[in-house]
Amino acid sequence: MNPFESVQTCLTKFADFSGSASRPEYWWFAFAQMLASSVLSAISPLISSAIFLVLLVPSLAAGARRLHETGRSGWWQLLWLLPVLGWIACIVLLALPPRVATRPSPAMG
Q: Please, what is the Cα angle at 94 between 63 and 67, to 5 degrees?
């Protein structure tokens, strides 16, 4: 998935907290959000704050979908509220590869 498709997907699924998001989809969107915030904060902190608020729900939705792909609940994003250690834990969880669904073993008997 290229960067433009990733951003477009995250913005079209802005309030969809179900399903999953691939690593490229999430990280390209996070990169685009960080880049836009950096550029706009140099222009005007007020505009940067407004963009942050506009992109808050889409970024939470993309994070929840990304965590679903790793086999975790979207609630793990609450770790962002813990300074430093929570941030590190969140980044690690969001960077994990997708969890491979295991087939149930046949019943012995």
A: 55
15 vs 71: CA distance, rounded Å: 20
Render pLDDT for 13-69 as a digit per residue (tens, 0 to 9): 999 999 999 999 999 999 999 999 999 999 999 999 999 999 999 999 999 999 999
Residues in the chain, overall count: 109
pTM for the model stands at 0.85
- Cα gap 36→14, rounded to integer Å: 17
Q: Do residues 53 and 95 touch, judged by C-beta distance below 8 A?
A: no
Beta strands in the chain (DSSP E): none
Q: For residues 43 and 37, give the distance between their C-alpha atoms in angstroms, rounded to a whole number.
A: 10
